[in-house]
Write a structure and sequence with these properties.
The structure is a homodimer of 398-residue chains. With 398 residues, chain A is of the alpha+beta class. Chain A has two domains: 9-267, L-amino peptidase D-ALA esterase/amidase (4-Layer Sandwich); 275-394, Ubiquitin-like (UB roll), CATH 3.10.20.340. Chain A is 34% helix and 28% strand. The first copy, chain A, is built from eleven helices and 15 strands. Chains A and B meet through helix 8, helix 9, strand 13 and helix 11 of A and helix 8, helix 9, strand 13 and helix 11 of B.
């Protein structure tokens, strides 16, 4: 199925020599917009954040963005004032390719931290990327490849929605959250749309969508210095800024794109053999549900059990028990892949062979934990934890 | 070096058939006291806690304890009212061996969860254990073995201290915190002393010691349903209840025993090849320091880096950054095994080969993270994370 580029944008992805290892070779992407675009961003809350995060944070929400430059292979994190200057220069180079001003560009970086950006390579890369800018699907794929680090494949998602007689396009790209070697591979997302939307609305709906999607995935629980999701809206679809029901429809479609991208990240987790969806229901409030889902999703014992096709209700229930959320243990229930393992605070007889086979034979595993505290629910996506993950993360020396 | 049994206690350890796997075969330990002993306990804060935890919690602090029964192979967790009755019956059986009343005993259990205790085996085991009760070191070792699950060796520690013309003995035993298969292996500790001490003081100094020792270790971040540390004081050393400077001296020795036992747990962690000591200094308060130490100690990326002998400052610093504790990132410093990797918020040149070799060649790895926020500090012990850990935890089907 073809994935369209939203109107108003051109993209490209090139290799400029930042990466030295054997991943996807593309390491620099350029995206330009033919008019001033609305931009919003959600960023890592890590106190140790990279230079491009600081730059983008200061430039969003806004409505005069013309270019985005993305590089992989170097995160420009822990690089001090020189890192800030390099990020600003990258923005300037990107903006110049479409005749925009230096402060009309955003920057996304991922890769090794504590190493200065190879600015000569970046300059040459931007020159090459500018020549290749186009709106076809191949260019979109190349741009999505330029942000990859340890990902085994690029990640794209899109939605087309009819709004007020027009078709609005939303297309996003992302890279994995897993971190490997010294590269500190970050979760990055860039969602483009041709909708007309105000900066305030863009920021609001992006924040809500990220909270329930990119912030509800866990690969290793490690929040990076560079995590960023941007929404950039060209407005090329025309019409008045989205409002009311149209804004709601758009928000829903944006959520779907963010969810598709977010799910693709654990699915491509390092060494992962299962995508685990953790549903938590019956909590007093959403924060409580999300906290339990997060703790279960990050439990090494839960994750290794799933890698081993072990329907280990004890690990799941006890992980919930230390999440710091009060609940009545005698009302807890648990299903794995639809098989009931635990009812009203006690294990029940189940077919262990069938349950184990169900985990082993399916890449998708569903964990449903229910509580008797209220109506709030949450959903997390995570991976299993395999020996291959450890091998990938241990067998590297800085 | 011989480890003495504190005066007033007799111990034994036997096999009664609870365990079926190939671990240390002993699975039931009995400890009796020839007079009413002071007892204090610190317990798991997991909302899903085992029957013996509920029983012990209701019986400590107190001063009439005569027996402790310990079993491995079955945690008596998630077993409902029948589990409570079984735990009470175990206490009754243990108390009867020394002519005490049913409520004068404490119970420690570890092992598989969600399975009822094999009470016939327990009854037979208590009968056997009662016949073997003795105060020699071999009996102490057998009692320490009876609590083991996946531990590769028993764990003992002791201190002899002169107090008011008498020699007071403190001797403790513990089992590992790692959890494996469906056995939910718990951290258990039992510290015996012949000191005379009030229940309130026993509880107070035990709580303080545990907070800084057993609560400052991390193997997999999973808090079990059964985690318990007990302090039982026979008073057989004689004299008045400890107070003032003597109580302080005793508290210090108790802390040392608790620290030795706590350190032995990650050192014997599943598949671990390194004992990692994480020192956090320069924080605004102890809670902040401890929170950072905990997050760094639990980071899968930090732990895999150490397994791979990778002096990966980026993973360590960025883990600190998401601990939820505010700090000025430009004042952060980091040393690994005494080698400076990071100063004032930026990486510095260091000999990577030497740093990697230092990690590879030593089982002990020291991580020192410094902040510029105050004078508070904390210390955590953790393990590295190896492929062997995952293999142990994944290759089991319930």
């Amino acid at each position: 199925m073809a994935i369209p580029v939203p109107a108003g944008f051109k993209l490209s992805g090139v290799y400029c020599g930042i990466k030295t290892l054997g991943e996807d070779p593309l390491d620099l992407s350029l995206i330009t917009c033919d008019r001033d675009a609305t931009a919003a961003g959600v960023y890592t809350t890590n106190l140790v954040f990279a230079a491009p995060v600081g730059l983008d944070r200061s430039r969003t929400p806004s409505q005069n963005i013309r270019a985005i430059i993305i590089n992989s292979g170097n995160a420009n994190a822990c690089t001090g004032e020189r890192g800030d200057r390099d990020a600003a220069r990258m923005a300037e180079l990107a903006a110049a390719t479409c005749g925009a001003k230096a402060d009309q560009a955003l920057v996304l970086s991922t890769g090794i931290i504590g190493v200065f950006m190879p600015m000569e390579k970046i300059e040459a890369g931007v020159r090459d990327a500018a020549k290749l800018l186009a709106s076809d699907e191949a260019s979109l794929v190349n741009a999505a490849r330029g942000m990859l680090t340890t990902d085994t494949t690029h990640k794209l998602a899109s939605q087309s929605i009819p709004l007020g007689g027009r078709t609005v396009q939303i297309t996003g790209m992302a890279k994995g959250a897993a971190m490997i070697g010294p590269k500190m591979a970050t979760m990055l997302g860039l969602i483009l749309t041709d909708a007309v939307i105000s900066p305030a609305d863009a920021q609001k709906i992006l924040s809500i969508a990220v909270e329930d999607t990119f912030n509800c995935i866990s690969v290793d629980g490690h929040m990076s210095t560079n995590d960023t999701v941007l929404l950039v809206a060209s407005g090329a679809a025309g019409g008045q800024p989205l409002a009311g029901a149209d804004l709601g429809t758009f928000a829903k479609a944006l959520h779907a794109v963010a969810a598709d991208l977010a799910k693709a990240i654990p699915l491509d987790g390092e060494g992962a053999t299962h995508l685990v969806t953790v549903h938590v229901t019956g909590c007093a409030n959403v924060d409580a549900a999300r906290q339990i889902a997060k703790v279960v999703s990050e439990s090494a014992l839960v994750k290794t059990a799933i890698a081993g096709a072990d329907p280990n209700w004890g690990r799941i229930v006890s992980a919930a028990g230390y999440a710091g959320v009060p609940f009545d243990a005698s009302r807890v229930g648990l299903k794995v892949n639809g098989i009931t393992l635990y009812v009203k605070g006690a294990p029940v007889e189940f077919d262990r062979v069938a349950a184990s086979k169900s985990i082993r034979d399916n890449r998708d595993t569903t964990v449903e934990l229910s509580f008797g505290e209220g109506d709030a629910r949450a959903r997390f996506w995570t991976t299993d934890l395999t020996a291959e993950y450890v091998r990938l993360n241990a067998d590297y020396t800085t």
